[in-house]
Design brief:
Blueprint: H1 2-36, H2 49-59, H3 62-66, H4 80-123, H5 128-172, H6 178-198, H7 204-228
Helix pairs in contact: 1-6, 4-5, 4-6, 4-7, 5-6
Amino acid sequence: MVPIVSRKLDRKIEQLKKAAAGIQQYIDASLFAPALHIQMASFGPFLPKSDIAEIVSKNFAAKDLEAVKNWYQNYAEFPAPIQVYYCQRENIQWDNNLRENYETFQNIWIGIACFLILVLGLWTGMTVAKFLSILAWGASLIDYLWENHEIINADLQRLKEMRRLCSAFENEGKKQSDQQAQKVLIDIQKKIREHRERAFLIPDMFYKLLKKRHQEQMERYSDTVRHMNGKQ
């Protein structure tokens, strides 16, 4: 029974992740396409607008949407392709920081679980049968945490590749034509969508716990970018 429920739940989660990634892509494209003077379809495909409206109305309250207004820092003083690039870089860096923090959190829990199992088994004098029952439970927990650890590592590898593309654009972007820059930025954005569809779902409580800290990191990043480009 449990495996059946688990498989159905996994399928539902995958469907929701793809739908959420599609909505996020639509929002980003609605910002980036006009700035780059290209069609939104370049960033597609998208969910039908009626589907987006239905998903948003079912899953998000007005207060939730208010919290993500003006999500990106303001890079208006830069040329349009550079504005888009810095927004994408900000998005990638935020997610990378969040996943690194969550991976550390999970590793700590794996260490605690192993330590507790050893303590219970070696120093409490419990019977072999009881110790084996705790070991079975602990092994299941560690296996779950380790599986999450491997998924997050895969996420971080994808983010590392996206950061490599960003660094290449930052080094060469100013030398490229608008058309060349647009092509690279579209490619980066499509990789962001692919990552969102496949990435491990970080618990909302953990995200909210570190949101202020990560927001401050992005504000410092924005200030540093302006300072290095003589915009302050």
